[in-house]
Each structure stands twice: as C-alpha cells, then as structure tokens.
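During the reporting period the student researcher (J.K.) took over the structure-prediction task from the postdoctoral fellow and processed the backlog of single-chain submissions. One of the processed entries is reproduced below for the supervisory committee.
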Amino acid sequence: MSDQPKYILIAPPKGQEELDTYIKWVESNGFSAVILEEGAQDISGPLLLCGGADLGVNPARDKRELEWIQMALDADQPIIGVCRGMQVLNHFFGGKVSSIVDSIVEDHRSDDFTEDVDHSERISQYHWVMDLNNNMQQVNSRHHQYCETVAKNFTVTHLSFGCGYIPEAFEDIQRKIWAVQWHPERMESADNSYPLDRLKVA
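J.K. obtained the following structure tokens:
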C-alpha cells in the first residue's frame, strides 16, 4: 500500500457501547471511524468486521457482512476482522467455523454468544498465543466458536499456546486481510495495535 488510509469503515456490532469501543480503538490508532449504514454499497476504505453473536444467529447481519467483504475485495480495500469478524472471513473463503468444546480448551469459553445482544459487559479471560517466530503474547479471549479448518488462502499467524493450539489469527497479504480471534479494541492486552497497524505498512 502506497498511502496510509485516513479512515476505516466499521461494520457495526449489535450495541452502541460495543460500537463506541471500536470507534475509540480505531481513533487511538490514528484513523477516523466511519460507520457503515445498512444497505451501504460503497466500500471506499478499509473494512473492519467486529465481534458479536455466533454465525447463524443473525442471518441478516451475516448476509450484510458477507456482501461487504465481496465489495471490499472488488474495490481492492483491506479488511480487518476481530473475533466473529475472523470467523466470517474464514466462512466466506470456504473455511469451517465450529463451536469450541470443553475437550479442546476451557480457557476460551468465557461466555455464550448464541444470543444477538450487546456483549460489552461480558468478562474476558486470558491466555497465551504464539506467533510464527515463537514470540508469546497474552490476549483476552471472549469467543466460543473458532476456525476449525482455515480457508486455504489464509496463513495462520498466531496459535493459542497450550490451549489446544487453535488458530488465533491469520492473514492473506495478497488480499490485504488480517484477522484476530481476540479483542484488541478492549485495550486489555500488552499490544492492542495489531492488526490495525498492518494498515500503516506501505
């Protein structure tokens, strides 16, 4: 990318409190936040897919976000996914999203996300993730679904360490897509700039 984008288009989560958290995160990283309205047909900047209810809970939101992903790809715009956003991206490209069972890792099951409500008050749990260079980072976990089979276009960049080694982040550099399973917008980890900082790399 030759120029750093000035704004990010947010595909809004369910509640205003959740949305405010994403707006503050985007702005704290040097971008303006533009909220996509339902029915928006112009993806003229990077697209941010937020966390929220499991896939299938809100079919209208699923359909809307899948359409926005295609629009972003057609417009050659970057895409950032957070938690559910990572799962939606994986689903879009043909990967498999499943529920985490107790036998995989209890640390991830911080709450039930089968209800389509504002999840701002849900309590985070924490676990360690490891990147491809074996660097460790503690992140907040709030999901109970995960990318069981990662779509072939994605490269997994982070795995949960000692917690089933499930995918915690992936990227598609060619398509300018970066996604994480944790919640950097809540500013609860040591590094809350990733993956937004990928948009600043020329």
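The committee noted the following: The chain has one domain: 7-200.
J.K. will present the remaining backlog at the next meeting.
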